[in-house]
Amino acid sequence: MLRAGGGPRRFALLLAAAAGAGALADRVLDPPSSSTAVHASVSPPLRQALSGAAAGLLRPASSLFSPWAPLPLNQGFPILNSFASASVSPANLSNQGSAGSTDDSKCGRGCLGRETFAKAASAVGPAVVNISATQDFHGWMAEKSIGSGTIINPDGTILTCAHVVVDFQSTKPVVRGKVSVTLQDGREFEGVVLNADRYSDIAVVKIKPDTPLPAAKLGSSSILRPGDWVVALGCPLSLQNTVTAGIVSCIDRKSSDLGLGGIRREYLQTDCAINQGNSGGPLVNLDGEIVGVNVMKVMAADGLSFAVPIDSVVKIVENFKKNGSSKHILVSYIDILVQIRRVVRPWLGLKMLDLNPMVIAQLKRKSSAFPDVRKGVLVPMVTPGSPAAHAGFRPGDVVIEFDGKPVESIKEIIDILGDKVGIPFKVLVKRANNVTLTLTVVPEEADANQ
């Protein structure tokens, strides 16, 4: 039963009431002196259909029916945000936070609450430090490098970027000078560069605190997905305690995609705002765990920031510990003597490409001799004189097993190689016309020219 009077506003009220939107009706009621009664008794399907129409009718008539902007015949009324279909009444709306609830305790893992980012930042923030390296020649400051770092051990072990504390542009890598580390509480210490790796741009700095320091928790970058929220912390332009947020744009941005030569590397791409001074600072997930180390951004471009995945960083630090004790390069700056320990990386001399069904189908169309494979790693090029060339690899080979393990990606081969140099590996390959053979390759240590 529908009955109303009083023109368009009353009709809109009727539609709102029919949709079960008492809160919306309260907003369009005339003063209490009005004597017009409104009654509604409709079926649930009609109530749902009328809900959108009610929201549309509440707009000024000119915006709906202006002669120069007619509504499409098949589109119906425009739907506005209204309390007609909201699960929270207007009376309770003022108690809701921007994320919908003030009680984050009811928000499970993966749920965004109003304190989600604040909690992630506060979990890591006390461990984030400001790092500066100053070269001073006879009282003149020649250059100052600024960056960030994260305490990963209460004893004062700090993770940062190598380019912040080491100059790799000279003929030999040298520490940029006196390394100063400022904690979040304002205390300042002199740091010593223990390890630095040019290719990953990762370094370890050590300070000697009087008491244990807050240390950040390391997470895992392997479980990240494009679209996951992340938080970047650091000291851009020496502005301590700076926090920005964004999402993961790409989980495996290759160095070749960025025009970077040398050894193959992969980065996390995010749209977090980072600037000079953020280098070495942590990239954090919403659980307050480090998932990357911010290393660079694209100049004159917004939303293009890159971090070294923490899983790769952990392997580099382990490599420091394993290979740094007996093999190191001694460099000095005035009266500072530091060990810059190298990371051992095996080199095969293979250009490789991950295969997928679409690429395989395209290659089969180009050449009927292409081997019948469903997965694997294609070898489009072999470096002359390399370990792979000595092993008998040829362009067009498809690697299907490496060291007895099935492989379908370059990353799997890199993980199997690890830091093993001078150790023979059995590789099962398929080549043209389905010829299958086993090759033995002995990786060499990579150098700057490979």
Summary keywords:
450 residues, Thrombin, subunit H, Pdz3 Domain, 6-stranded antiparallel barrel, 27 strands, 20% helix
Average pLDDT taken over every residue: 76
CATH architecture assignment name of the domain at 346-445 = Roll
Give the helix level as a range of percent.
10-25%
- Give the structural class: alpha+beta
Sheet with the most strands, sense and barrel status: 6 strands, antiparallel, barrel
Q: State the CATH superfamily name of the domain at 346-445.
A: PDZ domain
- Top-tier CATH class of the domain at 346-445: Mainly Beta
Strand content: 25-35%
How many beta-strand runs?
A: 27
CATH topology of the domain at 346-445: Pdz3 Domain
Low-confidence stretches: 1-5, 15-40, 49-101, 325-339
Distance between the termini: 83 Å
**Count of helical stretches:** 11
Description of the structure:
The chain has eleven helices and 27 strands. Among the domains are: 124-206, Thrombin, subunit H; 228-310, Thrombin, subunit H (Beta Barrel); 346-445, Pdz3 Domain (Roll). Helix 1 (8-18) packs antiparallel against helix 3. The strands form seven sheets. The chain has a six-stranded antiparallel barrel with strand order 3-4-5-10-9-8. Strands 12-13-14-17-16-15 form a six-stranded antiparallel β-barrel. By secondary structure, the chain is α+β, with helices and mostly antiparallel strands. The chain is 20% helix and 33% strand. The model is unreliable at 1-5, 15-40, 49-101 and 325-339 (pLDDT under 50).
